[in-house]
């Protein structure tokens, strides 16, 4: 998978999960993909102060990204 295809797949994953975040007043933005194994995102809106955002990141966002791009090993949230 090329880096362009990888980015496209990660964006597809974020598009899949975005409606769930937006329904709670939040959102997510792709910041970068490093070494084709680490994805950096920024949780926004209501997700910033949410007490379960780490759970959302791991069980929702990371799992969905890995479904589209299995080579991704970790997803990191960059605080606003």
In summary, what is this structure?
With 80 residues, the protein is of the alpha+beta class. Helices cover 51% and strands 26% of the residues.
Structure, described:
With 80 residues, the chain is of the alpha+beta class. The chain is 51% helix and 26% strand. It is built from three helices and three strands. It has helices at 3-23, 46-49, 53-68, and strands at residues 26-34, 38-45, 74-77. A three-stranded mixed beta sheet has the order 1-2-3. Strand 1 and strand 2 form a beta hairpin. Helix 1 runs antiparallel to helix 3 (53-68). The protein starts with a helix and ends with a strand.
Q: How does the SSE layout of this entry go?
A:
Blueprint: H1 3-23, E1 26-34, E2 38-45, H2 46-49, H3 53-68, E3 74-77
Parallel strand pairs: 2-3
Antiparallel strand pairs: 1-2
Helix pairs in contact: 1-3
Query: N-to-C SSE series?
Result: HEEHHE
- Report the span from N to C terminus: 30 Å
* Class inferred from helices and paired strands: alpha+beta
Q: Which bin fits the share of residues in helices?
A: 40-55%
Q: Count every helix, treating DSSP H or I runs of 4 or more residues as helices.
A: 3
Mean pLDDT: 90
């Amino acid at each position: 998978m090329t880096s362009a295809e990888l980015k496209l797949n990660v964006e597809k994953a974020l598009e899949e999960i975005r409606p769930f975040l937006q329904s709670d007043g939040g959102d997510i933005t792709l910041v970068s993909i490093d070494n084709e194994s680490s994805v950096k995102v920024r949780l926004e809106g209501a997700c910033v102060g949410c007490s379960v955002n780490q759970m959302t990141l791991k069980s929702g966002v990371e799992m969905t990204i890995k479904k589209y791009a299995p080579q991704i090993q970790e997803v990191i949230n960059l605080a606003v």
